[in-house]
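INFO batch 0412 | record 1 of 1 | parsing
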Amino acid sequence: MGCRDVHAATVLAFLSGTASVAGLLAAVLLPNWRQMRLYTFNKNERNVTIYTGLWIKCARFDGSRDCVIYDPQWYTAVDQLDLRVLQFALPLSMLTAVSALFLCLIGMCNTAFVSTVPNIKLAKCLVNSAGCHLVAGLLFLLACAICLTPSIWVIFYNNYLNRKYEPVFSFDISVFIAIASAGGLFFTSVLLFLWYCACKSLPSPFWQPLYSHAPSMHSYASQPYSARSRLSAIEIDIPVVTHAS
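INFO prediction complete | emitting tokens
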């Protein structure tokens, strides 16, 4: 696997990261993080399910798709700690993943369109493709941790609410979407790490695996020696001055 070519691993990592960010966006916007189902014993009334999201809250009767109560200002009055943490964690995870996608795209464009022989005058300023992918992999891993931890906490916090109040709470589809997106971010980081390890040359620095030594830095032309410089000291004729008596 040559580092100076765009490979299926980096393209697949970019597509996987894009899909994961799209999944995170859907999880953030959907009002389906927690359900609270209220039962009634009156035959003339219908049960009510309250859908709680990160930003809005919606109450629906069974069999209806319209919200009886719609609260678009729910994000300012969230009274559940796990959802409040997710309001900050998921946008931060998305921002980190988008930064990683941007770096990954820069690395692929640099690999595809930049010459493999750098200019010696710009060797220290060049964008390094594999370095971009390495940092992108680290950012994807960080985004996965930021997203996965509070998403799993929702499950345990839901059990806590059922024990504290009544068993009417259940986590909804957004939890699964967020966990699946975190898995996609982790898969993306693993792909980039595998590509980096396969491409990294051993003698190169950790952050510059491609152009650790610019070709023009060590391609010195051999200077021609004069014929007299190749003679040893013994072979050089030393003139002897004699004085006539």
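INFO post-check: The domain at 6-31+76-113+126-199 is CATH 1.20.140 (Butyryl-CoA Dehydrogenase, subunit A; domain 3).
INFO record closed
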